[in-house]
Amino acid sequence: METEKTLLNATVCLLVQRDEVQLGIKMGKIGKGCRNGPGGGIEEGETIKQSAIRELEEETGKKIGNKYITTSVEFLEKVAIIDFHNTKTNGETFICKVHFFIVRQWKGEAVDTKEMTDLKPFKISELPVDQMMPADRKFFKKILSGKKIVGIVKYGPYQKELLEEPIFIEVDSFEE
Q1: How do strand 76-87 and strand 148-155 relate by DSSP bridges?
Q2: Residue 142, phi then psi, degrees to nearest 5
Q3: pLDDT: is 78 or 3 the higher one?
Q4: I need a labelling partner for 140 at 20 to 30 A (CA). Which of 2, 102, 134, 171 fits?
Q5: CA gyration radius for the chain?
Q6: Domain ranges (residues) in the chain
Q7: What's the CATH code, domain 9-171?
C-alpha cells in the first residue's frame, strides 16, 4: 500500500446545478478511488476560500492546459465543517478539518487530472453511495438539500472504515 498522507486542513467543492451534483473519482491518497468533489489541502498563506478555488481549478485541469473549472469567492457557499479523526496503520492519529462548499455558478469544464478523473453529474436523489467514502454517504444528501452542518468522523487506516458512528449537528451559519 502507499504511504498514508497526513493532512490537517482542507476544502471540498461540490458543483451543484438544478438537482445534480458533479462528483469525480479521487486519484490521490485520501479518498483514493472514491467519488467526491474537487478539493485538497489548504496551503500556508491562503484563506479557506482561496484554497477552495485553487483546488477546484487544479483538480479540474488548470495545471495541464487551458480547460478547467473556475469560480469566484462570492459563489462559494459553506455548508459543512467536518473534523475527520484519522487513525493510521501504525496507530498514529491526526485530525483534518475539512470545509465543504456548494458552488452553483462556475465557468469552464473539467479534464481528467492526476488528482481527479471522471467528474460527472449525478442526481442528488441518486447519489453513487457505493462509490463514496463511508462518512460522505451519511451527510452528503443533508448538505445538498440545503442544511449546514458541523461534524466529527472517526476513520480507520486509509479512511476505508468508520471506527464509530459519525456525529453531525445542524447549524444556522458559519463564522468567517
Answers
A1: parallel
A2: -65, -50
A3: 78
A4: 2
A5: 15
A6: 9-171
A7: 3.90.79.10
